[in-house]
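Sequence only, no structure available. Ideas?
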Amino acid sequence: MSDNTHHNPTDEQNEQIEQHTTPENAEQKSEKKPQFPRFINTFMKRRTHVSKQAEQALVDPRFTRYIVNSADEKGQGIIDGITSLRDLFADTNETPNGPDAPLTFEIGFGMGGSLIEMAKADPSRNFVGIEVHEPGIGKCAVMAADEGLTNIKILNGDAIRLMQQLPENHIDRIQLYFPDPWQKKRHYKRRFVSPERMKIVTRVLKTGGWFHAATDWEHYAFWMLDVLDNFEGLSNSAGKGNFTPRPDFRPMTKFEKRGLDRGHGVWDLIYTKDS
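Reply:
I predicted one. Tokens follow.
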């Protein structure tokens, strides 16, 4: 997303890097490309059941029209060479919309059901989804093939690291639906929505583009509202201090419906990038 002699830094070491490495001093280390702080992972890979179909999709060449990158021996997506999401749609025989169509990027699409539904409902828009859990990656590819979709691509990898490689003003919409809320206080630093991570998000978002988040954890909802309302360069589409009514284009999952039936809340936030 290594040779055998490499040791991953601990959480504490990563936290120190996140706190003390700045774009300015990182730039001094390399003049070839922009440098960014190292971030602690916002995800935790979990072992879950993989269906036979999904497992086959991960290795079957027929599904490479959807799953565009391979994984290393640990199952981590190799994303080093991916510097444009629009280039994934350059072959207009395979993806008729072409690279200039409106582009939506979904971070952490789970099993892919909502992403597939949105791609079906808006065929003139291109969709790229990124996920680290292989069962979801395989399942999403199977569903895309079953529907014959030509406007969707799937990536295995870390979204923050990938966005650090992308050009500025590159994506029309970025979606973050039901991210891990990291409930324990000592894990708050892993929450995706943070001022430092939003710098990466807004850099690749087009002017006038959307960042859309949704969560069913009230504490995280108000955490995101506070971070985003106070982030320079973003404007709350519902007005400062307000959540957005659930938009029709975001599909309601079975999990969400079950929660609503039990009286649980769901909060949407949509922010636009200022000019």
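The CA atoms of residues 77 and 156 lie 5 Å apart.
Hope that gets you unstuck.
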